[in-house]
Amino acid sequence: MDDQARVLKFQIFRYNPQKKGDKPRMVTYEITEAPGMTIFIALNEIRETQDPSLQFDFVCRAGICGSCAMVITCGQPDLACRTPTAAPGREIKSLPLPGFNSSEICR
Amino acid sequence: MKVIYTDSLVIGGGLAGLRVAIASMQRGFDTIVLSLIPAKRSHSAAAQGGMQASLGACVKGDGDDEDVHFGDTVKGSDWGCDQDVARMFVNTAPKAIRQLAAWGVPWSRVRGGDREVIINGEKVTITEKHEAHGLISARDFGGTKKWRTCFTSDGTGHTMLYAMDNKAIQLGIPVHERKEAVALIHEDGVCYGAIVRDLITGELIAYVAKATTIATGGYGRLYAVSTNAVISEGIGTAIALETGVAALGNMEAVQFHPTAIVPVGILTTEGCRGDGGLLLDKDGYRFMPDYEPDKKELASRDVVSRRMTEHMRKGKGVPSPYGDHLWLDITLLGRKHIEKNLREVKEICEYFLGIDPVKEYIPVRPTQHYSMGGVRTNATGESPTLKGLFSAGEAACWDMHGFNRLGGNSVAETVVAGMIVGEFVADYCETSSLNVSTSTIEHFVKREEKKIADLLVRDYGENPYELKAEMQQIMMDKVGIFRNGPHLEQAVEELQVLNQRARSIALRNRISSSNPELVEAIRVPKMIKLALCVAYGAMLRTESRGAHAREDYPERNDRDWLKRTLTIWPDESADLPDVSYEDLDVMKMEMPPGSRGYGVDNTILHPDTEKRIAEIEEIKKANPKADRFALHQLLNPTPIPEKFKGKNERIGRGYK
Ligand SMILES: Cc1cc2nc3c(=O)[nH]c(=O)nc-3n(C[C@H](O)[C@H](O)[C@H](O)COP(=O)(O)OP(=O)(O)OC[C@H]3O[C@@H](n4cnc5c(N)ncnc54)[C@H](O)[C@@H]3O)c2cc1C
Ligand code: FES
Fold first, then answer.
1. Domain A7-95, CATH number (from 3.30.70.360, 3.40.50.150, 3.40.50.2300, 3.10.20.30)
2. Fewest 10 Å CB contacts: which of B23, B328, B389, B493?
3. CA of B196, nearest ligand number
């Protein structure tokens, strides 16, 4: 791993309505950026190594099916699988797309 | 216990599943489709290049018909396919594509007059017939004699799946999404539906049905790098295996596509080469003509993938931090063509490689792509050993692909199998009654409940993500494009160890509702079993056929291996499946084994081959008046459903 690798900070909207007493909140995770990393790769890494309860949806991981649409950083809806971590900057916010007034939370 | 009753339960909301559901619904049967995700996001949406059907409308498709398509398909399969199924398929494909047009697929069309195309690296002008103007066009694909692959730019799967799903919606077919079938309900050799886990609430539901169809797609994700969607994990195939009764066919037959991008493995369609793209090595040299002077870049997929690997082994690959690769050059096609007919490819290059394929070469390497193996069915799509269980699409080993599938024949199979198998599913619903006791249903619900409960209480144990990663690496390293005895033996041994370890998975997130780690914990043991079927089958098959290439047994051995591998897993506590073989009967083949025309022909002949060739000659002589349709009947009678028996019309040729 080269010395220059950045540590990325992910602020992710978490809420599991199935879980009693669970409240909507933002949770912060940190990971080291790898070359060519996309948000798809990063989120999987967070889930596998830090928080196995992290929920997200990827199917084609090729920018085709539309499953991974989310609001990335302030107000940018995009397909997470084809968004390189290099694009949004060091702090990445991720919020679900449907049914949420996400801009409010983002502010 | 929550129980839902239906006539026709279809597991899978991709092209194949939806088409089966449409067939049984249209015949008046209550039908439910299950899907992990919203149906329109199924992997079928990612199919790019096209669907084969011998319409013969474009000028380069002139002279095409079912028979030419049949020949290509059988050759492509390296004679490993079921020829009656291939015959049913080629005869129905033109009807399938026309029906899809009526349902709204905007197939790219022929434009009468001159157009410039790239053939063999050269600009050529071809002249489309004016009378064909507006008919469904086709592009060239690998391993085909004619331009037969019908397409909508390079978003063919997308348009097909959207039209299909819209048709299902129009018919009022319920798709229960975010549901995962985790086991089949069966008793005394009859299948009665599935135990299904709601991926949001975690609830287990028994879906009880007369007919159950597995249409869950392929098992590409047994490999670390695959062109497949991340949900193509073979779970439907695995639950059939776990019955201990249903057999899987040819699991070792795994296709590697020549051109997936490096390192992430996203596909760039065969249409790139079909439309004139070339493969280049590190010196910018076009190497395929040296290996395959006749078909070059458009040899069958298995052949091109092996040739590329051979060439890289000679040190001709382009070194990269992710290992060697080769170049796919589509720059010669020009911006206009790329932006119209290869626009998904262009987007993929821009987003995932940061390059513009109009000006730059695409780094590619052969990558796992397609599962020829799957739930073994007979020609009607039903499991020969588990009644009431059907399968269609990539999940099935209906077996029109044998050991290598032709590009464009897969989405075609999903729809055609959906049509044909769907009719047999409906027939089954019509003639059978549901005789299953509540206690049987309860037994299966309880069994699955217990498995999940065990996972949720275990304090220490294996991490499912780690097990999966280890399995995927074994498959990559030892069960790849070129295979050999020692590697395969190691793979089987290592997978057996993983299979044991998978019995003691423990979770960090111990909740029963929406929980990705639990989903993984349920799937991984199933995937390891499938991986064992693939590796063990590959180890035992001491020949090379299609995509199964053994370095230690390079010849195709018809004498000993003209057979289909059947795998069952009768003993849950075992670490290996039972493998047996089903002979392919040369004396029933419409097209007896021959050479595929690639490299040196080192086939070890089957003793019946000569006999069958002579017999066919005699049959032809004895029936001098028989046209090609009458000959199909004489040489290869098939159980094609009545409604699809009609002849197909072609421009300039009528119904001949
Ligand atoms: C990138 C790419 C491009 C391709 N391009 C072409 C092409 O141009 N031409 C061609 O002919 N072929 C192509 N193929 C192959 C072809 O797309 C597939 O073989 C075909 O679409 C598979 O369709 P299917 O209906 O069998 O399965 P899928 O479309 O994979 O659908 C599977 C369905 O099953 C559901 N499912 C899975 N497991 C479960 C479970 N346990 N419980 C409930 N539901 C479940 C899923 O949710 C999904 O709805 C391509 C493949 C890839 C990877
Ligand atoms: S996962 Fe399909 S578009 Fe991102």
1. 3.10.20.30
2. B493
3. 1
